Amino acid sequence: MPVGAIAPITGKLRKRLILDLSVALGGGVALGYGYWYGVHIPSVQRRDAFYAKLQAQQAAE
């Protein structure tokens, strides 16, 4: 039974690195947008509405 040579694995590390970086950056951007529009913007709107209501109450007094 002849022993066959195994072909060298070339470029695997680079391909994996590109995949890992792409997934990390894509996931980070997606989570950043999720936080910004799901948490930050609504809290800023609640805060602004509170201070607008407070200012209207103080102007009415």
From TrEMBL:
GO biological process annotation, one example: mitochondrial electron transport, cytochrome c to oxygen
Transmembrane segments: 17-36
Assigned keywords, A-Z: Membrane, Mitochondrion, Mitochondrion inner membrane, Oxidoreductase, Transmembrane, Transmembrane helix
Membrane topology: Single-pass membrane protein
Stretch forming the signal peptide: none
InterPro entries linked to this entry: Cyt_c_oxidase_su7a_fun (IPR014368)
GO MF term (any one): oxidoreductase activity
Cellular component GO terms, alphabetical: mitochondrial inner membrane
Keyword check for Membrane: yes
Compartmental location: Mitochondrion inner membrane
Pathway membership: Energy metabolism; oxidative phosphorylation
Similarity section: Belongs to the fungal cytochrome c oxidase subunit 7a family.
Stated role: Component of the cytochrome c oxidase, the last enzyme in the mitochondrial electron transport chain which drives oxidative phosphorylation.
Name of protein: Cytochrome c oxidase subunit 9, mitochondrial
Organism name: Pseudozyma flocculosa
